[in-house]
Each structure stands twice: as structure tokens, then as C-alpha cells.
Amino acid sequence: MRPEIKDDRQLRALTGVPTEKWVILEKAFDSALKEEKERVYQEGVLAGKRKRKLGGGRKGKLPTAYDKLLFLLYYLKVYPTFDVLGAQFGMNRSKACENVHALFPVLLKTLSNLGVLPYREFKTVEEFRFACDGIDQILIDATERSHRRPVDSEEQKDLYSGKKNVIR
Length: 168
Fold this sequence. Notes:
Helix content: 55-70%
Oligomer: single chain
Distance between the termini: 60 Å
Shape: extended
Order of helices and strands: HHHHHHH
Strand content: under 5%
Radius of gyration: 23 Å
Structural class: mainly alpha
């Protein structure tokens, strides 16, 4: 019971991905999903825990790679609660949570395989420069957050930013 996608505009609204990129992403996601299923199957066989052959058992509410990708990208774009997500896709909230946590690593692997996974951290300045090669301007949005001040005076000195609160 997935939402019916009528056109490119609706696909973009629900997932943030245009149709031409969706086709590429879906194919790569399907491949990564099959690799993950095979890996899990082989682990089960080696551990002696497998009761059924690959593909056996009850089929879930998200039977195809298309359904799984739509489910996950909808969650990441709209960020509903698991209650709402489950209701939207015809499943229990616990199953919605389980599916998100199971499918997210597959999406990360897919994006990595396609070479479009964004950098999250840099160990050296050279890595940062390499990642930003060809970029003229970088904007950083930072928010100052308050935190509890330590009672110990030595810890206070370590955390002191140099700012003074000036009341005018």
C-alpha cells in the first residue's frame, strides 16, 4: 500500500529525486539490496540458522526495490513519525522503524557505489581541499548552543571561549 506516484513533480515532492535520477538510483539500489540479501543469507547458512531458502517466507509490505526505495526516501525527505510512516505504507510503527534501520545502510552503500555519497568528515586539511576542489565559495551555518557551566573552576577555564557578556 504505497502512495501512487502520478508524475515527476509528485516524485520530487515525496522523495526529492527527479525521475531521470530515480531510474539510475533504483537500479543501483536493487543491486545493492540483492547483494545485502545474499550476504545475510550466506551468514545464516554458515551459522546454521537458515530454515528456508533465499526468497522463502512471508512477503512484506514493501515487496520490490522500488517500494523500499520510495519508503526510505519518503522518510528521509518528509521525516514523519514512525506511526505516520507506518500508516502511510500500511504497516505497524515498529515495522516501519525496523525497515528504515534495515534499508538505510543499503542506501548508503548504493550512494557510495554511485560515487555520490557526500563527505561527512575530514581527517586532514588536504582531504578537505580535495573534496572542495572547484568550489569557489563555502557557506557554513553554525548555531551557538548554551550548555551547563561546570562547577569546577579548572574545567570552567578550559571551556571559557574568551567572550564576555556585555550588557548595554
